[in-house]
Amino acid sequence: MELEPAADLGNSYGINNLAVYYLNEIVTNINKQKAFELCQKAADLGNSYGINNLAVYYLNEIVTNINKQKAFELCQKAADLGNSYGINNLAVYYLNEIVTNINKQKAFELFQKAADLGNSYGINNLAVYYLNEIVTNINKQKAFELCQKAADLGNSYGINNLADCYSIGIGTNIDEQKAFELYQKAADLGNPFGIFNLSHCYLNGIGTNIDEQKAFELHSKARNLENTSEIFNLAVFGNDLKC
């Protein structure tokens, strides 16, 4: 594996990226313990991605016990180092009252900062603000444009939310065929909301022929992923660990 020499030489990015391989079963078998140790090593070397990813471990009880306070502190540290994923994730903390008090204005500013850095999750989450009048005024056209931008960057939540725009007519005309294609794309990327919404399309003949069997299979898959049908759900830590 090409990453191993870099990791063995103490390269913090190689160490962090190798952790991602072990966690996501890329080439190698899943080894969450090894991934955690590599993540810790990268973080100890001051790598902002390693620090942010370590926060994900502590928040989601991967190998280690849940420690929301430690997760928050690590997320803050990654954000202070200018890591766009850390900045986006810190915003989620402030929005959802994880450890800290709810501060929607601060969350908005952090999402904007992450978006300005080109972070697709920040861009997608900023769209949620403009659609739901969180801190800012409703601006459906801006929400649509942000969803399109996140989708163009390959963000599965952005793709799903863009499909919602076409399905409901948010900032654009209703186009059920386009919505179906985008839900399919999000589902193919493993997005649970895309999978659920695709099942809805097959059940009701939205942009495709009715196929109740297919709808049932997709719905079951979505439920196994603990999906809900909430539209424009904020991507908390989508595709958790980052290289």
From TrEMBL:
It comes from the Eukaryota. InterPro entries: Mitotic_Regulator, Sel1-like, TPR-like_helical_dom_sf. This is Uncharacterized protein. It comes from Glomus cerebriforme.
